[in-house]
UniProtKB/TrEMBL annotation:
Residue ranges constituting the tRNA-specific 2-thiouridylase MnmA-like central domain according to the UniProt record: 225-290
Main location: cytoplasm
EC number: 2.8.1.13
Keyword RNA-binding listed: yes
Name of the protein this chain belongs to: tRNA-specific 2-thiouridylase MnmA
Organism from which the protein derives: Streptomyces luteoverticillatus
InterPro entries documented for this protein: MnmA-like (IPR004506), MnmA-like_C (IPR046885), MnmA-like_central (IPR046884), MnmA-like_central_sf (IPR023382), Rossmann-like_a/b/a_fold (IPR014729)
Its biological purpose: Catalyzes the 2-thiolation of uridine at the wobble position (U34) of tRNA, leading to the formation of s(2)U34.
Amino acid sequence: MTDFPGAPDLSAPRKGLRVLAAMSGGVDSAVAAARAVEAGHDVTGVHLALSANPQSFRTGARGCCTIEDSRDARRAADVIGIPFYCWDLAERFREDVVEDFVAEYEAGRTPNPCLRCNEKIKFAALLDKALALGFDAVCTGHYATVVVNEDGTRELHRASDMAKDQSYVLGVLDERQLAHAMFPLGDTITTKDEIRAEAERRGLAVAKKPDSHDICFIADGDTQGFLAKRLGKVEGDIVDETGATVGTHEGAYGFTIGQRKGLRIGRPAPDGKPRYVLDISPVNNTVTVGPVEALDVSALTAIKPRWCGVAPAGPGTYTAQLRAHGGETEVTAELVGDELHVRFTEPVRGVAPGQAIVLYDDTRVVGSATIATTERAAAKAGQ
């Protein structure tokens, strides 16, 4: 591995690091910033203005990056006693996250905008700006752990509390980015209620603020409606595995592989069982549905791999996570050229191109890649 001259040992007890705390306006990032101060670091808070039109307030527990959130972050910084700034990264966020999200759905893939935001915004645009201003690290409220090896290299590990682990959405970080990442919440086993109780003890008004869910730039949670406004309604057919039309839709981009609800299929399957989305073809605007068993995937090919350290040499056995809140499954994986070839020990369901696969060696994050193609177990069995 390659060490980075000047990279601070963020796990050491040394005090006095200059830390830029990314404060979303939520309870996790506020407590993380407070803990960094308590550890003796020189902390400055920053809220990222990611919306070009942040006039609307969050609805319930949905959304973030609103004016309300920036005000909550500022109030938290005041209570903690640290300087606070609001940085406008709306244009960069629109290009790297929102436009990428729309383009992926238009191409029939299912993206994860949180991974893209961590890769392109929080640990690229924000980190680059922080380092240029003389900061040593960026601190966030993610639940994950950075381990420093004896040779000074970094590893990303799962949080101590698996129930809150967020290492999946951080699997895009490379070693240089890990060298300047600080996650104060990752190495303590505490429930969310305990984090809120800590925030209340510290006098932080966000202690009782609801968590944000879904996609931050789709505050009402209506992804299909958001895409329809951007891409327009384009009617097409919903077909079964034989090619027979069983319904219609207003845009193939509004579906994802494994989806069951909202298909609006006029007649039931011959066996009376529910049908699921098996394939999305943007070329002819067709959605294919079929039985749940047809969703079983035995292997996949992924592209654009990013490694949290040195890329693995040769085939290896790992566990893989396919969703932010999904479980682990055992796989064998090998890097072939620029592609990651993965085979599952047992078939898995609901795997869609565009999703990220993150590989683990026990608790260590090996790296991640974007799923390009899948191999159906049923198709292989029928050969």
